[in-house]
Design brief:
mainly alpha; four-stranded mixed sheet; two-stranded antiparallel sheet; 21 helices; binds zinc ion; electron transport; Acyl-CoA desaturase; stearoyl-CoA 9-desaturase activity; heme
Length: 472
Amino acid sequence: MASDAQSQQAAPVLDGTKDYKPLRSREYDLKKPHITETPITWGNWYKHVNWLNTYFILVVPMMGFVAAYWTPLHLYTAVFAVIYYFNTGLGITAGYHRLWAHSSYKATLPLKIYLAAVGAGAVEGSIRWWSHGHRAHHRYTDTEKDPYSVRKGLLYSHIGWMVMKQNPKRKGRTDITDLNEDPVVVFQHTHFLKCVIAMGLVFPTLVCGLGWGDYLGGFVYAGILRIFVVQQATFCVNSLAHWLGDQPFDDRNSPRDHVITALVTLGEGYHNFHHEFPSDYRNAIQWWQYDPTKWSIWTWKKLGLAYDLKQFRSNEIEKGRVQQLQKKLDQKRAKLDWGTPLDQLPIIHWDDFVAEAKNGRGLVAIAGVIHDVTDFIKDHPGGKALISSAIGKDATAIFNGGVYLHSNAAHNLLSTMRVGVLRGGCEVEIWKRAQSENKEVTIVNDSTGQRIVRAGDQVTRTTQPLASAEAA
Ligand SMILES: [Zn+2]
Ligand SMILES: [Zn+2]
């Protein structure tokens, strides 16, 4: 059947993606305006609602809550509901997401059948539909073509995108050729409604009914309400994981890492990592982080059910982490006052420098750079007398150990008092240093183009303490 259908594949479109004619749910007339292109009014709002989805994710759970009021909760049913919750949740996280949407590992046929079955029990659409949307989400994250873009609001990314009709013309295209060739995926897609009823409702009802006579409890708690919890938990990957937490690998898009999201979603909460390394079978990379989906895949590997687990080298992962740290550091650095850049300072003649100092301005020359210390004299930690004695002089040697070997902090502070560069040979050297401060982009400019002045690298610092005190 599958090979028959494969021959009916549509021709590839420009971006190399293909569709699969026999599995398309409905053909749209792309020339006619879609309902989403008309604004919502009191008269047409019901046409904007996707009633089938609304029924499955809102109406049925509401009926379940009402029924629960009259249905006593049997202990065994409660325990089974929790166990089945984990199984159906894994169907989505380990199956739909990490196996089929991202091919982060390979599964043997029995494992595939198990994941497709319990995944259907979570009632979140077929593997094929889900993975198509998820691949579009990764390809077009945060853009118009992202089916659940958090930029359209937290509630939209959580549930709005399913409750409201979507414009098929704006749907991001992705290649799902591999899924169309997977018989388990094709079977589940073509028989999806039967799979949902069997695994979502009939199976849990039968287990509780045949097991301990609690048919009604099985239907209400392990069926309907368990479906509601699994759905809401996995929807959190689209909403909460793009809204709450840190961005240790890249902060240009919305995905974030947070332990709360991980706890809710069977380990899918390390979403910043996941968007950077989507084909890694792990979402959490530290052993102490909560990722039961990863632990399950690892266990299946040990049991011979899963193989070819994909993992990025820690070298690659750490590069991303360091670059993001660097970016944060650069942002911090850019907020600080490092003094006027040397090549923006005026050139001052030695005689003008001396004359101005005589007129009462507290000018000091250090390593060819003139600093105005007038307002600092009273605060000088070494006392007024020492700093005053350097006014109108070249204090390079005094500052660099002739009298006192000034600290890194002192050089930093001094740089904020720069007012000019001394003419007379020195400025050439200063310019050279300014060049190396400004032009060697990779070494001395940060990612925002700001100059980096490393500790001990200030222009006022000379490598050897100078012997003579009165260089001028
Ligand atoms: Zn995401
Ligand atoms: Zn993903």
